[in-house]
Amino acid sequence: MQELTILQPDDWHLHLRDGDTLPGTVAHAARRFGRALIMPNLQPAVTTVEDALSYRSRIMAARPAGSDFEPLMSLYLTDHTSPAEVQRAADNPHIIAIKLYPAGATTHSEYGVTGLSGLAATFEAMEALGLPLLVHGESTEPGVDVFDREARFVQRELTWIVERFPALRVVLEHVTTAEGVDFVRQGGATIAATITAHHLLLNRNAMFDGGLLPHAYCLPVLKRERHREALLEAATSGHARFFLGTDSAPHPRARKESACGCAGIYTAHASIELYAQVFEQASALGQLEAFASLHGPRFYGREPNARQLVLQRREWEVPPTYRLGTTDTVPLFAGQTVAWQLASDYAARGR
User: Of 10, 18, 145, 247, which is the active-site residue?
Assistant: First the structure.
């Protein structure tokens, strides 16, 4: 197949950052996606409706001319998020979810949740109002091996949430393990998961290919090959509760290539192209539209995008860096080739 046409996809897990980074990150996302669910782990965190609407206005201002890209907002759950704030979020059409970061689990998670039981009233309000809980599913107990953090969280915390609040819609974000996949498969209609392109493409060996490679470091960390295979099977299976969420997360090159490098992989420059490459390698291109364009809207109670997106099977080389604001960001597969590209990019390069 040399050309693939699908309904325009959505990204149900995206980090755009803020400030002078926004024009670059928004432009990359808007070229590919009709909508994106924006993560709230800024500094300071997006914890209130007012914060979210202010952030949304900055994203809207950064859209390329003529773009109708729609940012869908989320709030950052803290130990002090109240049922009243949940009600305000549910009443606002631009805010569609609340994100749970265990304190200390990932970038800017210092404001995150230190214990679940104290949030019972908040979860009850979300359950009653139909506001989904997005979960960064990693245990932060000191004795848990970094490669086991998701499995432990699924076994304990996530199981507690689902059993205590059975009607609460829950998304296990950027699922990385066979245990996480099994949890979603065995759950009911209220349980879903997003899957990233980098967790489909890479296993943990990628972090050590010829040295310690900081640009392959993300959280949740890349896992063993058996887990990557479980993710691939879930993504390409047609199962309606697995859908696209890039977790594209830019960091300045200097902060990645440092004594204590940041966690995050930037994929927004070629996100849908990378998914197409994965699905082609799995002989499952026919399932890409459902995964990228249909399952997510269905879970969130929205119509799919009407516009179509066209991909051409033509190799192109990823630049070594992208300039985002005043800093350089190294993207996934920098200096390497990607097998698919947007038809508009192909035409612009002199078809």
Answer: 247
